[in-house]
Amino acid sequence: QVWMDAGTQIFFSYAICLGCLTALGSYNKYHNNCYRDCVALCFLNSGTSFVAGFAIFSILGFMAGEQGVPIAEVAESGPGLAFIAYPRAVVMLPFSPLWACFFFLMVVLLGLDSQFVCVESLVTALVDMYPTIFRKKNRRETLILLVSVLSYLVGLVMLTEGGMYVFQLFDYYAASGMCLLFVAIFETLCIAWVYGAERFYDNIEDMIGYRPWPIIKYCWLFITPAVCMATFLFSLIKYTPLTYNKKYVYPWWGDTLGWLLALSSMVCIPLWIVYKLSTIKGSLRERLRQLTCPLEDLSSRPGTGQPLPSTRAGFLMLTELESHC
After folding, report:
1. CA 238 to each of CA 114, 172, 178, 290: distance values in angstroms, whole numbers, following the listed order
2. Average pLDDT along the chain
3. Binding residue per annotation — 264?
4. Where does Na(+) bind (predicted)?
5. Is 26 marked as a binding-site residue?
6. Which listed site, 118, 130, 212, 321, has its alpha carbon 20 to 30 Å from 77?
7. d(CA 256, CA 122)
8. What letter does residue 83 receive in the DSSP assignment?
9. Does 45 count as an annotated binding residue?
10. Is 150 flagged in the annotation as binding?
């Protein structure tokens, strides 16, 4: 369970499969060194988490020793950790009101910063998918306004008297690592086995001028899909119904609503596959081949602009002719 929680936390910490990094990266120049940015992001994020761990765990250890209880009983993970452990430490500092203002100002700024990126990822995806609709005068701004208002109304429910129960429902199901693991499985399979890991390496070489570390390709092909699949299955097998503060047990309709929230993001992938298959003419094999063939302008030999030879590690084992359909 600890390893599963740690694995899912990596997804949220690095914003993997959330679309945030993809949306921000889409504004870079074509030859921007994305490999260097990824390595820097990993070290900066891990370093920040490591330093923050010293602060939070030392505070929890002090509180546990002061109260004479195990550390696990001091505060639960989630909102209780941020609004119980840290404020308790701030109170013990000199000029505590000043530090308390700084702490809660930091929380507000971090929340706003996260919301900017999340809204931008959703808006950018919709604008890129439907350019004829949203790339017109004030259409993008109107879309941002609608997304912001809808998010505000949903968040407003969590500020009511029973809002913490609703928040826990969203946090446990809709924003769970299980949903991100499901997306990660399809993402790695599509990139490594359908589009082709070798072709993807060629695209990166065309952008940055050299090929990244070779082990990354094998992570895409084998290690990452296997780890994500194992963690996803383990989370399903070890699933336990949601409880609040280890006392309140949610009713059956609450768990049902939670699973519907979780499925609302996971079913998008199979539903979109079915939709695309149903809107293309031809036999099933022809439709699958057409949908899994990359566009010709996506693959180019570095420095020449010539099409790259097709990879034979693809899911459909595309031939040279089929790869340019």
Report:
1. 30, 14, 12, 39
2. 83
3. no
4. 13, 45, 110, 113-114
5. no
6. 118
7. 26
8. I
9. yes
10. no
